[in-house]
## 1
Amino acid sequence: MIERGELHPIMRSTVMAPLTFYLKGEEATQALGKALADILEKGLTLHLKGGLGAGKTTLTRALLRGLGYQGRVKSPTYTLVEPYTVTLDGEKVELLHFDLYRMGCAEEFLDAGFRESFNGTTIHIIEWAENADTLLEPPDITVSIEFQDDGRKISLTPVSPKGSACLQKLVFRQE
Ligand SMILES: Nc1ncnc2c1ncn2[C@@H]1O[C@H](COP(=O)(O)OP(=O)(O)OP(=O)(O)O)[C@@H](O)[C@H]1O
Ligand SMILES: [Mg+2]
């Protein structure tokens, strides 16, 4: 019999606890971004949470570098979104990096046609997703960054089975 509060064995295999790491300095954030590049799949959506200067863009920049993108990666602070084309398993995939901090209202997200990019193929990395309220579907993975001592505490939480399957492949060793 399954006790109340206990997960059914089938659920247990698909639901995974958050992964938490202490990132001592910017290089550690960059190393994690590169490790995330190795597990990324097309259609994946990541929400990056954390205050101003937490390291969301730093992580995204390193992830893009890990995917082999060599051009400039600027923060989408004013443009709301920056598009990239990356290669995953030999296939070209669009990756959209959003920063919705300066979005005036959630409807702006609809008016800009951003919803149309959720097509099962495009990868979305979204800073300040909370500003789009309920217009956004839940992500596959939520990444939360908090300031801790001189570094950052980061938690990667799988939200969907797809996000969970990806995170189970993450290889990240801290020195
Ligand atoms: N693990 C870390 N320890 C200490 N400093 C870090 C760490 N990771 C990143 N940083 C520093 O923190 C800052 C993060 O800036 P970044 O632009 O990435 O933040 P952000 O979360 O995208 O902010 P915003 O919400 O304004 O877009 C950079 O100065 C970077 O060098
Ligand atoms: Mg940023």
## 2
Amino acid sequence: MTSLWGDVQIAPSYEPDTPAVLFQGDRLDLLRQIPDGHTKLVVTSPPYNIGKKYETKIDFDEYLKQQKETIGECVRTLAPDGSLCWQVGNHVASDGEIFPLDIFIYRICADLRLKLRNRIIWSFEHGLHCRRRFSGRYETILWFTKTDDYTFNLDPVRVPQKYPGKRHFKGPKAGQFSCNPLGKNPGDLWVIPNVKHNHIEKTIHPCQFPIELVERLVLSLTNEGDLVVDPYMGVGSTACAALLHHRRAAGAELQAGYVKIARHRAGLAWEGRLPRRPVGRPVYVPGPKDRVAQMPPELDLVRRSLRTTR
Ligand SMILES: C[S@@+](CC[C@H](N)C(=O)[O-])C[C@H]1O[C@@H](n2cnc3c(N)ncnc32)[C@H](O)[C@@H]1O
């Protein structure tokens, strides 16, 4: 397999000059192979300890201890100008009480002397329908840096302005355009569809990242040739985003089936053939003529009868 960047090389264990290292095994066994200061960006979504098919639910304190071990080892590998982005939702206890994981992860990272730069809200429309609380439709990304001297490239991730023709209306710049022609800062509320059944990137993994989400982090927090690491890589979405933009990638995953898919996707990303949702495509809004967006008459009858009996 080749690309403009040369032949694809996907190594099974860490080699500093190999573009992609996709390791099958525990995250600490990969991280310990990476020398101090080699990583520019860590992006990951760990298991939430909620009993998904790829995890065994454990005591919450033990879970946090394991998260601390992973983050500590990530920080050791981080370059001084590097960043760590931990994407999490809620841990849900057996009685339904929720524990927003970012509250706990923040404390761990602050104790490791990382500095929080943004708490990004990732909002999406689809997911489980809850019966005894409002359905969860956002998760967070905690973006930390190791020092105050960190890489942040805003221009590659600017988004279109709402009013690009707006002008300064008073003062010395009166009459001149007030917007940056490259677009505006995307802000810290990101509306990006999550990968559900009809998504073009869907694999067998139940919780994969949309590639666009990682691309924004890769483009803004790294430069070409930098190393991007995902200690819980799943089907390799982080690696794909890194390779698409000529960064190096390393990831660890316990499940052999997911690693196989990650290697396949990384090869396609390298060749520019990976099926993916284009960056910046607006979220789909059904039109009035879409059949599934119309209330079927038989359901409408049920709805009316339920309303009158309330
Ligand atoms: C939330 S998923 C990450 C999905 C990923 N972001 C993607 O786009 O495919 C967490 C992954 O961590 C893996 N995992 C769990 N414990 C692990 C460990 N100790 N070392 C490496 N991977 C682990 C799980 O098998 C699961 O695929």
## 3
Amino acid sequence: MRLRFILPGLLPWVPLWAGEPPDPHLKEYAARAALLGAKAGAPEWLELAAFCETRLLFKEREQALRNAVRADPESAEAHAGLGEARVGKTWLPADRAWAKEEAEGKAKGLVFYGEGWVTAREADRLRSKDRESEGWDLTVRIDTPQLLIFSSLPVSLTWRLAALLRSEAEAYARLSGTFWKLGRPERRMKAYCTDRKEFERLLLSENGTVPPPTQCGLYRSSTRILYVSCSAGEPRNEAKILQCAVHEMSHGCEHQLAGLSAELPLWLAEGLGDYWCHSTAGWQVIPGKAFFRSGDAGPALLKDALASPRLDELVAMREESFDQEGPRNYALSWALVHFLLHGDEGAHAEGFLAFLKQVQEDPGKADLWQSLGSSADKLEGPFKAYVTHRLLPSIQDFK
Ligand SMILES: [Zn+2]
């Protein structure tokens, strides 16, 4: 029988389980948490939370973050990790913080536009200026450190989208370590979040083609604009719109933050895009969270893909063959990126990140298997086991 301590308030450093933890990383977490005990400060707990993040210990990550808050109630990093935002002197879950801020703003007759609350008249002035410069009928703008977000979607949805994309850029930088060209690009990217009609009109006027019905987003590296909408013929599905935005933002991050070539192999670009969009949790992006959108036959796709894993083929695929069985190849690419970052207790992560660095420097000669010190043949067994035992059980509805 497994016992759980139920006095976290009194014994904040006691791990959530009792007895022998099954995962070696859990053991390490338990030892490190016990060592920190009651005296450690927020930085030590934040470091432990980061350890948990890369090892997919989500409950323990949360526990470490709560301990960081206990050690320093004003730790912005710890609150952000818990998905909280500050309103006045208190910290609240981000959605409640936004609702409170919105109610207070409205009560004062103010409107959110750009970076803060302004009078309705000022918002009108700024909006017409933006409409003129962007050439379409946006209604709200939200600025983040990485993006200027122009939107005709409801403000509450745009607000959540802005929080997610910001959290994603930060998580991207945490995960990818020191070799990325970190920091702010010299100019912020733009995001256009619109209804389907406007999305099609904008892309049609830009290059004369209408996006395929299932395509709900696009990152254009030449203009540094990220387009987000819903699929054609579908009612507005907020969860899908957010997921689409996070996927496209990953392409933007590769281009803007990492300086990766736009010519990334398809499995890698799309696998990373889906890795990030399936890591969405509430108002945050937590690497590896492994949510798969519902209603997309995700589990069936993965099972189907597993029936004949062909990693060598997948990593060599060009556009036509990748698109032929698009949904399956996206699912498989997502699973492969997840496996390379977290599978086999993190044994491949270093080689994979080195491979990414190599892609950045010399896209032509990068060789995945060599960087990993392995081969497709050797990895297919462990990959299959990882998908079966780790990824399939983790699939949930996207909320
Ligand atoms: Zn993509």
## 4
Amino acid sequence: MKDKLIIFDTTLRDGEQSPGASMTRDEKLRIARQLERMRVDVIEAGFAAASNGDFEAVRSIAEAIKESTVCSLARANEHDIRRAGEAIRPAARGRIHTFIATSPIHMEKKLRMTPDQVVEQAVKAIGWAREYTDDVEFSAEDAGRSEIDFLVRIFEAVIDAGAKTINVPDTVGYNVPEQFAATVRTLIERVPNSDKVVWSVHCHNDLGLAVANSLAAVRTGARQVECTINGLGERAGNASLEEIVMAVRTRADIFPVETGVDTTQIVPASKLVSQVTGYPVQPNKAIVGANAFAHESGIHQDGVLKHRETYEIMRAEDVGWGANKLVLGKLSGRNAFRARLQELGIEIESEEHLNQAFARFKELADRKSEIFDEDLTALMRDEAVTPAPEQYRLVSTRFHSETGETPVAEITLSIGGAEKHARANGSGPVDAAFKAIETVATTGSELLLYSVNAITSGTDAQGEVTVRLSRDGRVMDGQGADTDIIVASAKAYLNALNKLHVGAERLNPQV
Ligand SMILES: [Zn+2]
């Protein structure tokens, strides 16, 4: 009988801290539902004290999710913990995850607390959290650079105070596998009450070792791994859920654990997260990259045809490839459209909203013969996610580009309800469109990132554009999708401007 490896997904919290990857409450809910469908054990839904929006997002997820535990992060102070406790109150199973820094450099420079004060604060934090739930997790922030004696001391104290999960994060992604695994083993051996808790790891990927470090720790006693879909997360990201789950499953001979994850939901989850955040998945990404199961070379293909196991260690269908079937077309009716949206977990608030969305679907179906789930996701994101009231809206566009001539864009925008026209030249039509927008919007935003990705295959595929803008030290990503990539680009630019216009400051804890 194998031990259970608890899969703790933090796409909605740590993943959301990727630059520009902020998600709306509805987007978070959809991802949470997909995580639940995938049978993830714990969903870290957010950091409730970060803002009212974060609080509402955690609470909505706590209300909606029945099978998975719903968790909120909280710093080890009373205010954060009470916000987290209130946010998870509706959950069938709720967890509070509290953390405090334990490395000498963080205690001294950031917290300005002595080690004694840090232990005392951590114990108090567990006490406040237990007023709301028995399921309390404690993280020693920057554990990877903390002194082992101090970790033993603080862990013993918080376990006595009632913590049920002890998380050892490699916050800055500094560890290497053998050494990190040894640290976890030493902690389990030396903390006197270590058998009363589940040991957890949370590894960052700065050296590309997040998955390797996590798996090495599983071999020495960790029974929870914190991870994200597509490895999303701060800087180089977190351990990727799909790699952890498939490594444990494929090498069952090596790992003494099994997960409860329905692996056929992995690729749909990956696509959803990629679309919602605008972070494309690299083609050679393990498990979920477009090439992950493409055996290109002739020798391999021959081998695979003769006997699959010659070259394939996993089956594409086991992780959900091929589930992307043709769903709708030009002749699909309103009911089929509504039913498919429901299956995708997309909420339609009113008949009027459905009519608008259906009209846009028909318009897309005129230009694109086959409509896939990804197209619907993009369509509905354009439809629903733009923050209301929209400050900037695209009314119409005209582009001209011809060999040997300077590209020109003419654009009509609605800015705060008033229509404005502009015309600009650029080095290409996209450049011209952005310049035209700035001519009238005059936001002074700086373009940090521009990327185009085809949502599905075929030349009639929708281009999905991500635009990252910075203004006054704030960074926002905007997304837009259209079969015309210049229109998609303009939409993405305006989406980012709208987010910059309404967005509030958020706290981003480094755990
Ligand atoms: Zn983290």
